[in-house]
Structure formats: structure tokens, C-alpha cells
Design a protein that fits this description.
By secondary structure, the protein is an alpha/beta fold. It has two domains: 4-73, no CATH class; 78-253, P-loop containing nucleotide triphosphate hydrolases (Rossmann fold, 3-Layer(aba) Sandwich), CATH 3.40.50.300. Helices cover 45% and strands 19% of the residues. The strands form two sheets. Strands 5-6-7-4-8 form a five-stranded parallel β-sheet, sandwiched between helices. It has a three-stranded antiparallel β-sheet with strand order 1-2-3, with helices on one face. Helix 7 crosses helix 8. The radius of gyration is 21 Å and the shape is globular. The two termini are 37 Å apart. The relative contact order is 0.13.
Length: 262
């Protein structure tokens, strides 16, 4: 998982009227412009103030920072950091409305879905909003449950495979550590499943992740342009059966591409 230092863009000296000079960090904000964090001792004092109103404000500020870090740790691509369940446009299309209701219901009942490790497969044509909804589900789940310690992660099937390959003969992460990093998050989004070459090695790598999360009852959201039969060919029956276990959801995006793709 990504560590905190990547969030700091720049550090320079700041001057506090009460505490003197301090290192002021320009820190990345999820889906927004970076901000200067200000005096750390002032932040600490507000969180521990005798005045309950001041203390509540300091605690809220601290919680927002923690959530910001969790959202950044989730590695949601910049293009989809503004993607929410609310700004996914269903219009009057009943098929879109039904899918939207299903994914919203999954997020609202995430505690229950996490308990049983219920997964979701978002399948269908290019440009139909699958990644938007998947990243919105991840982001909203973190906003609901991030204060309870939830961790989430977005990745692609190709990214997982490259991470495993990078361990071969290299100094750094081991193959086991790569798999552990994929299994650890409470919710994992695996995008672009099916864009690989379809080799046995690739199939085995993805199965290791899906099966590892299945064994730990961790929900996984799989995003693919494939149909269910094609996904079975790509991942294998064992992987798809695990995704379908405990009422795993399959939503098919059968409408035309919003980007004009055929």
C-alpha cells in the first residue's frame, strides 16, 4: 500500500504567532487542489482543548485529514476522483436506473456485504460508466466507513500482473508481499479484467488475488468488458464461482457507449 510521504508536495517554513516557526507542508487533497496544513501544534491544541466546541472542531478537522489520506491511499485515478454515485447520469433509462439502485444498495449495506465477503461484477460494453460506478462505490464506502479504519484500493488486472512479474529476480517486494497487498484492503476494485493475453500465468495470478480475498471474506469489485461466459474463460470457473458466492452481484451494462465507441 502507498505510504503517507507521497501526499506531501512541498515543505517550507511557516510562522505561527503562538508557537513560532514550524515546517508547513503543502499536502495533496483528494479531488481538490493541495492545501497548506498549518501549525501542527495548533492542530494538536485544538483537538485537546478544554472548550468542547473547539475540541469538536479540531477532531472533525483531524477526521477529514484521515479520510483524505485513506482516499488517496485507495489510488483512484485522477480522472475518477470526482466520480460519485450522485453524478453518474442514469436519466430516464430504466436499465441504468436499476443498476444504479443496485450499486447504491451495495454501498449502503456495505457492513453486511463485508461480513459475508459479497462481491460485485460490473460487465458490459466500453464507455458505459462501469469504472465511474466502481470508483464511486469505493469512494463512498470509504466516506461511510473510513473513520472505522476501512481501507480500499483501486487497481487494474494488468497492474496486478505487472506487480507480480516485477518480483522475479528483483530486490524489493516479494511475490507474497504483492498478493498480501491485494488481499489486505477491505474493498478492492480490479478494473480492465480481460484486456490481458489470457495466459495460464495471468489467470493464476488473478485467481490468487480473488481466492485470497475469498478466503478472508473480503469483497471485490471486478470491472470488465466481457460477458459472464467470456469472464469464465478469462478467469476460470473457480474464480468466477468465488465472485458469485454468497449472492455475489452481476450487473450488465448493455447500453450504448457515452464516448461514442461501438
Amino acid at each position: 500500500m502507498t505510504t503517507r510521504p507521497r501526499f506531501t508536495i512541498e515543505t517550507r517554513a511557516g510562522q505561527c504567532t503562538e508557537h513560532g516557526q514550524y515546517p508547513n507542508a503543502l499536502v495533496e487533497q483528494f479531488g481538490a487542489d493541495p492545501v497548506w496544513y498549518g501549525c501542527p501544534r495548533c492542530h494538536f491544541d485544538r483537538r485537546h482543548a478544554a472548550d468542547l466546541t473547539v475540541r469538536a472542531g479540531g477532531a472533525l478537522e483531524h477526521t477529514k485529514r484521515q479520510l483524505n489520506n485513506q482516499l488517496l491511499d485507495a489510488a483512484i485515478p485522477l480522472r475518477f476522483q470526482q466520480a460519485t454515485l450522485e453524478n453518474w447520469v442514469a436519466g430516464n433509462d430504466q436499465a441504468k436506473v436499476r443498476v444504479w439502485n443496485v450499486v447504491c444498495g451495495f454501498v449502503e449495506a456495505f457492513a453486511e456485504n463485508f461480513e459475508v465477503g459479497r462481491c460485485v461484477m460490473l460487465l458490459g460494453k466500453v464507455g458505459t460508466g462501469k469504472t465511474h460506478l466502481a470508483t464511486a462505490m469505493l469512494q463512498q464506502s470509504l466516506r461511510y466507513f473510513g473513520t472505522q479504519g476501512m481501507r480500499g484500493l483501486y487497481t487494474t488486472a494488468g497492474g496486478i500482473i505487472r506487480s507480480v512479474k516485477s518480483t522475479f529476480g528483483a530486490q524489493g517486494k516479494t511475490e507474497a508481499q504483492v498478493y498480501a497487498g491485494m488481499i489486505a484492503p477491505h474493498l478492492l476494485v480490479i478494473d480492465e479484467v480481460g484486456l490481458q493475453n489470457g495466459t495460464d500465468f495471468e489467470r493464476q495470478v488473478l485467481f490468487e488475488v480473488i481466492n485470497g480475498r475469498y478466503e478472508q471474506t473480503k469483497p471485490t469489485i471486478v470491472v470488465s468488458n466481457l460477458s459472464v461466459p467470456q469472464l469464465r474463460e478469462c478467469l476460470g470457473d473457480r474464480a468466477v464461482d468465488r465472485l458469485r458466492d454468497r449472492g455475489g452481484l452481476v450487473e450488465v451494462f448493455g447500453w450504448a457507449s457515452a464516448r461514442g465507441a461501438a
